[in-house]
């Protein structure tokens, strides 16, 4: 049984399987420009309109350097994705790559983790879109009833808090939610409260993804042009209002303040991986996917650095701890018309991000179904639209229903766990491809830098730096009990052990330093996530493993001799 759990698919098998999809294959219509547009649509989403403010507040003007450092860290992962995309040009993304490198059980775990990442992140994006949309309508004098723009979960919790502690205990958002619960129409004794905009935008985007990749591409291209135009307008227009004295001090809170925003800044770049889910709809995936991933990161890094410098130059960094920093800085300078334009563009930006991730989710399900690990219906291709029809509809339902009724703020970091997990396996997969000589088939390869000695030297330097300059960190460890160390620092211990193991294996097998750097960067960022997110993620994986052993293990095409 253990042998079957780790059975692998060859690149030739995977490419051959793509020829046996119901109703023919997917429509190959995407070129480099389209892929870059989709990547920018995913990357330049809600992050540049919200989290960039908090990062600037914590790090000051020096946070612009954090975007550069984070982009370099992302490059390690992006290069690994690019090599896999050129080697295995199919739609499964990290799921398919794990099938080639590590075997079926790892592929299933990654595929199951990606379902969580894409679905939960899109719920959050849809709810975020609703907030921006409602705010934009208010700017035009249109006020929707609060019971149509609030989740029933948030309304109920706010109402209970109001009953227990009184109105003075509620913040502004909670007062609005409690008001929605109080004045909502009722079905019997049940208040009818839904986040209607979040549900409607998900249905609309799902419909667009369902009817075709061409239509999705066109919509994405239009929205990307609009929002990049607005970002450039902010950069160029804001440059005339920059006060150089606001850039002093450049790093007011030191390195700790800069690095405090590393998680949010890192996820401002996430999106390049979603491009790989469209591999079977690319005209020339082995050439175009690697190029588009690198182009996306380069373009977005330049935009992020420039816009951060403009924001911190227009107002003092201490004023940027707001949810809408771009609109705020122009309001503070009296340019209300610019703030209005930004408000509209933020809705467009988030719509395009929702579109790209809603495009990627069903294509991963389609690939898993094609391999026999999910119900065959998920791999059905619409005869007219040439899209994974059933998978797209189910993905729409999975996102729409929770977005209508639940608040998803608790689960934001949960999507991060699945993302980092996938990134680590993709970087590790490149080391496997190199070790087995499969990389020779790749039309794009991660530049090779011999890490035989560098990985170990890096470990020694990191430990030396921690010993010499990490007094605060070491003191924290000294005051933790063994139970607290296990509960809160387990991943940190795993990080250092992994680095040690990679140093030994790197010496033995001459590992390339870039994929190793990708593994370590992503693993370090994983240590910053809360324990509660890991508990939920482990629970999710256990559910997934139960489904695999009850259905996927038996119906796997490899288990049935690769028969359809």
TrEMBL record:
Location of the Cationic amino acid transporter C-terminal domain: 513-556
Chief location bin: membrane
UniProt keyword Thylakoid present: no
Source species, domain of life: Bacteria
InterPro entries: AA/rel_permease1, CAT_C
Annotated compartments: Membrane
Alphabetized UniProt keyword annotations: Membrane, Transmembrane, Transmembrane helix, Transport
Topological category with respect to the lipid bilayer: Multi-pass membrane protein
Name of the protein this chain belongs to: Amino acid permease
Organism: Olivibacter ginsenosidimutans
High-level lineage: Bacteria, Pseudomonadati, Bacteroidota, Sphingobacteriia, Sphingobacteriales
């Amino acid at each position: 049984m253990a042998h079957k759990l780790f059975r692998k698919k060859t690149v030739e098998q995977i490419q051959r399987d793509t020829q046996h999809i119901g109703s023919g294959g997917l429509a190959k219509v995407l070129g480099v420009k389209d892929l870059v547009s989709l990547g920018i649509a995913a990357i330049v989403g809600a992050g540049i309109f919200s989290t960039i403010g908090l990062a600037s507040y914590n790090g000051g003007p020096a946070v612009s350097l954090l975007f550069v450092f984070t982009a370099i860290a992302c490059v390690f992962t992006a290069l690994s994705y690019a090599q896999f995309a050129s080697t295995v040009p199919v739609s499964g993304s990290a799921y398919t790559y794990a099938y080639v490198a590590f075997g079926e059980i790892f592929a299933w775990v990654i595929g199951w983790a990606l379902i969580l990442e894409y679905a939960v992140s899109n719920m959050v994006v849809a709810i975020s879109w609703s907030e921006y949309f409602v705010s934009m309508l208010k700017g035009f004098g249109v006020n929707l009833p609060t019971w149509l723009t609030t989740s029933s979960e948030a309304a109920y919790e706010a109402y209970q808090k109001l009953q227990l502690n009184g109105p003075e205990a509620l913040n502004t958002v909670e007062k609005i939610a409690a008001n929605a619960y109080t004045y909502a129409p009722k079905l019997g004794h049940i208040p009818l409260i839904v986040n209607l905009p979040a549900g409607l935008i998900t249905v609309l985007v799902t419909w667009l993804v369902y009817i075709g990749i061409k239509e999705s591409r066109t919509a994405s291209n239009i929205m990307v042009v609009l929002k990049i135009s607005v970002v450039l307008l902010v950069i160029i227009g804001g440059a005339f209002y920059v006060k150089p004295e606001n850039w002093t001090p450049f790093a007011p809170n030191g390195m700790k303040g800069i690095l405090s925003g590393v998680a949010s800044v890192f996820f401002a770049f996430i999106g390049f991986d979603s491009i790989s889910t469209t591999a079977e709809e690319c005209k020339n995936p082995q050439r175009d996917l690697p190029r588009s991933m690198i182009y996306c990161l380069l373009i977005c890094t330049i935009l992020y650095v420039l816009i951060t410098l403009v924001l911190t130059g227009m107002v003092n960094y201490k004023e940027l701890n707001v949810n809408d920093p771009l609109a705020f800085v122009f309001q503070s300078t009296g340019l209300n018309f610019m703030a209005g334009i930004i408000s509209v563009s933020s809705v467009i930006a988030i719509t395009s991000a929702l579109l790209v991730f809603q495009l990627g989710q069903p294509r991963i399900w389609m690939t898993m179904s094609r391999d026999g690990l999910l119900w065959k219906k998920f791999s059905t291709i619409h005869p007219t639209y040439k899209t994974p029809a059933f998978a797209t509809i189910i993905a729409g339902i999975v996102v729409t229903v929770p977005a209508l009724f639940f608040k998803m703020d608790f689960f934001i970091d949960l999507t991060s766990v699945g993302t980092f997990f996938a990134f680590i396996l993709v970087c590790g997969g490149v080391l496997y491809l190199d070790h087995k000589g499969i990389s020779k088939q790749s039309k794009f390869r991660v530049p090779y830098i011999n890490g035989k000695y560098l990985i170990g030297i890096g470990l020694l330097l990191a430990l030396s730096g921690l010993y010499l300059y990490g007094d605060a960190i070491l003191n924290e460890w000294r005051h933790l009990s063994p139970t607290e160390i296990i509960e809160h620092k387990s991943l940190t211990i795993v990080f250092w052990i992994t680095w040690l193991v990679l140093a030994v294996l790197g010496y033995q097998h001459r590992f390339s330093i870039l994929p190793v750097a990708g593994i370590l960067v992503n693993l370090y960022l994983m240590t910053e996530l809360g324990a509660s997110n890991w508990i939920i993620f482990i629970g999710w994986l256990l559910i997934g493993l139960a489904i695999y052993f009850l259905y996927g293990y038996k119906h796997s095409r490899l288990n049935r001799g690769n028969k359809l």
